[in-house]
Every structure is written in C-alpha cells, then in structure tokens.
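Two proteins follow. First one:
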Amino acid sequence: MIRYILRRLLYGILILIGVNLLTFVLFFAVNTPDDMARLSIGGQRVSQSAIDRWKTERGYDKPLFINTEASAAAKFTDTIFYQRSVPLLRFNFGFSDEGRDIGYEISQRMGPSLALALPTFVLGLFACIAFALLLVFFKGTRLDFAGVVFCVVLLSISGLFYIIAGQWLFAKILRWVPYSGFIDGWESLRFLVLPVAVSIISGLGAQSRFYRTLFLEEAGKDYVRTARAKGLPERLVLFRHILRNAMLPILTGTVSAIPLLFMGSLISESFFGIPGLGSYTIDAINAQDFSIVRAMVFLGSALYIVGLILADISYTLADPRIRFE
C-alpha cells in the first residue's frame, strides 16, 4: 500500500509539472506581456515607456524560457518561467501582478470558501442519498416515478436559474435573507443559508438519480434476495446491505471531492458576493492576472491529485478485499 501511494505521488508530481508548463504556454499564447501591461494600466493608447516600466517592475521584461543574453545556468533561471512558475513546485505562490501576496490572499479567502462548501457538501450528500434511498424503498410506485421526473426536471435547469430565482424570491420578495455579502463569525449564517440551499437543490437531481441507479443495481443481487428470503425487514436490507455495498462508487465522487472544497465555488461565490477562492479566481481571470490564475490552477490540480489518492485509500476501508500491489 505504501509503495502504491508513493508511486501515485510520483505520478502526481509529474502531472503538476505538466499542468504548470501547459498553463504557462496557454496563457502567453493568448496574451503577450505588452497586452498584460496595457490591460493593467488601462487603455490601448498607453505609451511604450509606460509598458516597459510595468514589465520591468513585475519581471515580465525577461525572455519566456531561454535567456540567450545570459551565461551558464542564468540562461534558464533568468526567465519568466523559472522565476514565476518554478517556485510553485515548492508551493511558493509569489505575488500577483498588482503586488499582493497570493499565499496570504489564499489563507484569508479559504475560510469563506469552506464556510460555503462544507455545509453544501455534507448536507447535499445526505439529502441526495436519503432521497435516492426513499425512491428505492418505494421502487415501482407512483412516488418513485414522480421522484425520477422531479430529478430530471431539476437537472434540466441551469444552476444560474436557481441562483437568480432564489435571490428574487427569498431576498427581494420575502426578504428572509440578504442578496449577497459575507461577514465573519456566526452572523455569516444568514448570508450562507441561501447559497447553500441553492447549491443543494441544483445538484439534487443528478446526484440522486446516480445514487438511485447504484442502489437499484445492488438491490437486484443475490445477497439482497437472500437477506429478504431470511425475513429481514426492508429497512435493514436497505441500510445494512444495499447502502453499505454501494459505498465504493459513492466514495469515488465524495472522498476525491473533499480536498477541492478548499477551492470554493466559482459561480456561487461570484453571485452571492462571498470573498472566497472561487470569486478570487474569477476576478483574476477578468483582470487577466497570470500570477493568480497560474497559482489557482496549480493549487486545484494538487488538491485533485490528493483527492484521488484519498479515494483509493478509502476503498480499502470500505472493502477490505481490495488491496493495492
């Protein structure tokens, strides 16, 4: 098991190097340092001297990969890629194009992101599994049919509709919750109720249908028929046998998603004004701040790799028969 984890970590490092390089190449294939300077300064009629000064202050006046004017190792170290992207492999995020410490910004914005993502994840997972089990318990009845139709309707509607409709109904008409915003402490609950509820409802349809399919597949197996033939109540069959043996595919999507909770939600945080990592990433994309975008892509990739490793480890806990060589 230890050898397997070490091998996966090695693969993960190689993937992170590739992601870092690909992000760098794609960004500079679209924008040159001159374009970044014009956008940051604000306008197309910016003098070349102002552009050169902006590039010099932020280190974008150097070559991208190879500095032919330097000697020895400086040919590769005195470049934009080495000075701006290589430190990411040490999780040194550096500074944004505006001069702000990215690592400090991430540490400050991680709390609001988790405040939104954790209750959404836990309550959403509980709601989807409970709803799917309810449909399986009443399999073949009108309630089951109505529940499937309800799931199809939910997943057929864009998540933006739930956000706009929720803000219009609960914030504007009923005035139960504020439109948007966030404050520290327990007072933040009134700002989080609506985005958490909207996120749960928008994901209920797809996840519940997926879990229902898993449970129905398990319900048709021999061990379930044997349990029913022994006279076990349907409630025990549902929770002790079907749910327990369907945990492997559920763990694939849940455990691997846990590290990504730190990244926040791009759409929800932007619409509800929550100063988390999701809105931080959107703002950086709009401003074309390469340093922030590069750091967030790298962090997201690292967390995703950690999530996949955690999912593999959780398999052995859910099913002792699984062993990794």
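Second one, unrelated to the first:
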Amino acid sequence: MPAGDGYRDLFKMVRELGLHTVCQSASCPNIGECWNNRALTIMILGDICTRSCRFCDVKTGRPLPVDEDEPRRVAEILAELDLNHTVITSVDRDDLKDGGARIWAETLYACHREAPDMTIEVLVPDFKGNLGDVDTVLDAGPDVFAHNLETVPRLSRQVRVQARYDRSFAVLRHAHKAGALTKTGIMLGLGEHLDEVREVIDQLADLGLTILTLGQYLQPSKKHLGIDRYVHPDEFAELKSYAERRGIDHIESGPLVRSSYHAEGQAELIRRLQAQPGHGKVGFASLS
C-alpha cells in the first residue's frame, strides 16, 4: 500500500492542481515507490478514455470538454518538482478531430518553457494512425516518443479492442524515421508464447527501437482479462538478455515493470543517445 511523506506531498499537489495521473487511474502497483521518489506520470486530456482496452483500469466513457488550462498546470507541477526526467501520457480521445494532438503539443511547449533542463518522454495513443497528428507531437520536441504495442500480434485485437498492432507499429516506425528516440512496452502473461515475444523483439530491433519495457500483466478487476500465467523472473531476465543481444539500447524487464518504471533514471541515457549521429531532439527548431 502506498505511504510515506513523499507520496502524501505529491498526492496533495496533484489534487490541488486538478490534474490526473496514470499512476492512480490505471491502479499501478508501483505508485508508492515512485511517488516517494518524486516520480510520477501525468495523464493529460482528462481521466475518461474513449476506448475500452480489456487490460486497462482507466475509466471508459464520454470525456469532458478539453481543459485549455491543463498545459499550464502540468508545466507548473513538473517545474516545482524540479525533475531531471518525466513521463507524460494521455487517455485516448477519439472524440476529438486531432485525437488531442494540439493539447499534447501545447503541454510540451509549456513544459519546455517552465523546465527547460528536464527531459520529457511522451507516451501517446495511436491517433487512429493519423501521422499528421503524430507529427504535431513530434514537432513540439519530446526527448523520447513512446507508444505501447502491449502484446503480440496474435492477441492484439483481444487485448486492445479498438486498436491494431500494425497501426501501432507504423506510428513507432514513423517516429523513428523522424529521428526520435522510440520506446514501447509489452505485457506478459496474457497467453503469448515466448517465441512470439522474441519475434516482436526482432521487429523492434530491426526498427531501431531505443527503449523496451517488459512486465507482468496484472488483472485490475474481474471485468478485465484474466491472467494466463505468472511469468517467472528468469524468463524476464532471458528476454532482456535476448533484446540486448539484438541491439536495443535499454530494457526494463521484470514482473512489476510498467511503461514508466524507473524512467526517471534514464535522463543521462537519453542525452547520450541524442548526441549520437542520426538522433537528436526532434522538433527542437520549432521551440525557438
């Protein structure tokens, strides 16, 4: 159970600013550890999602109108926390013509102004595959562009009812071609086979993926997909070793790993990779 002074202080700040976090909305098991380390994942565009993925505990329904002041408040809390690195995510907003891309960009610009030394990872939806909306986010200068595949192709429709594996992969490929450092996450324990996971890792390595997370699926409620099996830590270790051999730069792999797990410790890695030829901060020129 979450506890500690750091957790309580962060809980108060989030509540007073009227913000949402995926840590709370998705019932993340690591919230106590992360918040006591002043690490959190802000969730923009409200806390009601237009999709109904069968693994996710975020509410599904008709979202409220866009909060135009939200980018300012997100930048305010992140600047006050004085973080080296942070992760921002959002619900899916299929009700909006641009999928929320404009608010994504405005949030990034506000954060760059208020906390210019902080590296920012964005964990975005698929924008229904609209690459123009993806470019709107990329043009705002994220340091890491993340979009989760969540599972292997065979199970994708069952797990992510309104999403498609090929569409998500295309979003990652587009971001990589634009020069972004890319990241994705896969849950294990949904019925996938290890050879299927290795095949996905092969595809991601061929793509040039920068960061990969592998974690155990946990069933949020009886209404969600059941757990097929608990994956042994040795299998997580073997898959991490396999991904490293395939050339992926950084892998977080273990039962409690989630998309943002230990992301705050990756600022140095991100800056080192950005300094390499072919990388850099996408959209940086548009900030001037």
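SUMMARY FIELD: The beta strands are 20-21, 41-44, 48-49, 59-60, 85-90, 119-123, 144-146, 181-188, 211-216, 250-253. The first helix runs from residue 5 to 16.
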